[in-house]
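Q: I have two molecules that I believe assemble together. Could you output structure tokens for the complex as a whole instead of separate predictions?
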Amino acid sequence: MTPAQTTRLDRPGLAPGLPLWRRLLLSEYLVLFLTVVYVAGMALIVPEILAADTWRDILAAMIPLLIVAIGQMFVLVVAGIDLSATSVLAFSSVLGAAVITMDGGPLVGMPAFLVVAVGILAFMAVGGAVGAFNGACTTRFNMPPFIVTLTTMMFFSGAAIWVTTLLTDDGSSIGSLPREFVFIGQGRVFELPFSLLIALAVGLLAHVALSHSLFGRWLFAIGINPNAAAVSGVPVRRTMFWAYVISGACAGLAAVIYTARLETGTPVLGQRILLDVVGAAVIGGVSLFGGKAKVLWVVFGALFLTVVDKGLQLLGLSLAGVFAIKGGVILLAAIVDAQRQRLKGRG
Amino acid sequence: MSPADSRKIRLLLLQNAPLILFLVLVLVFGSLSERFLSPTNFMNIVTQAAHIAIIAIGMTFVLLVAGIDLSVGANMYASCIVVALYMKGWNPVFGFAVAGFLGLLFGAVNAFVITRLRVPAFIATLATLFVGRAIALYLSGVKMIPFGKEILLLGRTTWLGLPVPIWIFLLVFVIAWVTLRLTTYGRQVYAVGADPEAAAKAGIDVRRILFSVYCIAGVCAAIGGLVSASQVAAASSTFGFQKEFPVIAAAVLGGTSLFGGRGGVVGTVFGAILIQTVENGLVMINADPYVYPLVVSAIIFIAVLVDSLRTGMLERLERRKIRVETA
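A: Yes, here they are, computed for all two components at once.
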């Protein structure tokens, strides 16, 4: 099955004769629609949600989340999962910052563009390496991805803190990053954040890789039926391995943006966004059972979660309220996904 | 030595890998610290491991049907906070009854979402993890809530030379062992885990079994929570936070497969004690506290790796048998 076939039912208008609620439920714009409804509802209580500043915040919060979630999508499409993404954020933030710091780092005195280039490479290499480890364990030793990435998550978030205590006196963070590097997170080009360009580039690349390349077709084939894919000559292990590497590298790239924005490498980076990362992909409509994904869906999912977050923030809800609503939203999205599968199975 | 023999030896080593790991760890820690090998310390290890072991026994039922429950930590917080808030001065038996009932309810919600709404167990229990913690945080007002004196007393009382937490843990263990080994229900759990379709064809109500294991995990989480409460004295906002990791790890270390159908509570108890031994040993040898999570996660990783190698090797051995028969 090609991606085009798997997504045909999601297009509105292609299945006339269905009742409106069913068309809406099956539509790939369902999440975008829900976002609009949410914003409209919120605007009645907190009109600030419509302000330009609010949306600038939403965009800023969404960009790195989107990059991690796009990486996660590559793993989800082969029916895997990468729980280590958030620990990669922390670990690569610390190691990457240690490489480029101007406070006694190894690159002091080098030309700025070189430092920035080496820095970005270092961040992504750390992420890619953790991803390669996850990928090797799941494909070579048939270890369940859930538990492999759970242990790597525990290990590397612990390692991030431990390394920080070794590298710094107070054990909190690594600062003195070059100005050119900080620009990646804080700079603006034509009034738009520079990091938006990175997110656009990642999104475009991911879209081409997923929906318009042989690699992407392999991913879908594995996600739908790994045995059939193997019989048809798909290099199943190699493809799955690279899916995990992509997820790790994307998390490393997101760590670049987070770190540049904070101007410090810190081991507490991304501690709270694990659920958001998986959630953004799943809410957008990427199936946890594999074989169903699209970059645009992840964009919608990330937008939805960020907007929900911002709305709750504006409402001034307590920690308990935020937890309850977030858990509820994830549950709702998972239930909707399960029902969609059932409807499609029948249709 | 024939290749078949060497394969059998490798399998034997793999099957007993956690035990070998345990002996190595005891030797290493024992040689680094004199206090580590004392009987008092061993008693401490078991007492500290009791609550993890109890929750992990419930988790074993879930893992046996190839499910997972990430919400056990949230469940223990939510169930125990009620006891801490509203049941001060009550007989602890009532505390356990109420907490157990609330845990059962929590588990039943998980079970409903998983078996009726067909949400994957992983994502369903991830969501209830957040909702459960939210309920507990709301009830407690994000404050540290001390448990009643009678619960604390429970943690310090000994009976026939053993602390009460160990007795509770032994009781849960015996009930779970009898249920899994000696009852029809237990055999059905294994059957569903090994092959749900075959189990359904054999007339087992698969959904009922799936539903029940999440309820059992819920009850165990709440009871384990109260046992933990008797040791930590108060429920802070991080009570039970990320408890699911050591709990799943204990079960997996003990040889319960994440793919379902294989394992048991004896191994789980062993796994819980193994993890506590590592943590206790690291304290005894004055290791850098920042290294704890690294060592613990590395040991869990090794256990899972061994489990996967063993699964792969068993599959290969069985395949060979078929080939011999057809030849």
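A: One point stands out. Residues 1-14 of chain A have pLDDT under 50 and may be disordered.
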